[in-house]
Amino acid sequence: MWILAAGVLSSACQQRLVRTAPPPSVRLVAIGDLHGDLDNALDTLRLSGVIDGSDHWSAGDATVVQTGDITDRGPDSRALIALLRRLQGEAELSGGRLVPLLGNHEVMNLVGDWRYVHPGDVEAYGGEGARRAALSPSGSDGAWLRGLDTVAVLHEVAFVHGGVSPELAALGVETLNDSVRAAIDADPFSPVLGESGPLWYREYVQDPEDVVCPRLATALQHLKATRMVVGHTTQRDGHILTRCGGALAVIDIGIADGYGGHRGAWELVSGDARARYPSGPLDLEDPR
Question: Of the CATH numbers 3.40.50.200, 3.40.50.1970, 3.60.21.10, 3.90.1150.10, which one belongs to the domain with range 25-283?
């Protein structure tokens, strides 16, 4: 079993893969794109048992991953960042863990591409100048976002916003995360931030399975994982999509009102995956 453990701390929190024995019961929860919709995000976190009715951490020692794109489209990006930062601390105190990952929209904001920023989000920061300062490397939200990883491998599950090609997976998790982090401020046109990089990649979701499943298997082998969980490509029917015999789960179900206002989360308990919807849990295909 391979999981991420805290490594040597630097200006951006670094992580590394270490081998460890699996605990007898592991609960992983993953939530997809939130796109500036605080109310729907809170509903989804409650539905999945991550927060209670007072919006505080209630998932105990579970690990919860948010696969990026909390920003843009809606007015609540700042509030969502504040929520996740608070829940990170509450999770740690409870023996759990909240792992927010970078999405392409976070990186767009950090490099100054504000095409999809909601006017209400600018107002929440007190204007464009204040927002730019907050998202700068020295700004509170900007420093936090730059410290997030792009890829996390937890209990043999690889989490990423778009997907990791076999070519990039061969670099390893730490190198890939460091490459994205470095490119944000030094080289915003780097290929690692482009369509073939982990923030924008859609091949596993959109291309024929007979083509992509062997490539996914190779990527997972490099990542020392058995499955990959991604967001980014919205499932307009509001349901999690699985492909390649359950080796891929696509969890962007359109939580924000602008994408349908669906509620749902991905969950793994003792090796078995399921979706959590308002109508109840639904078993998902598991790779065997």
Answer: 3.60.21.10
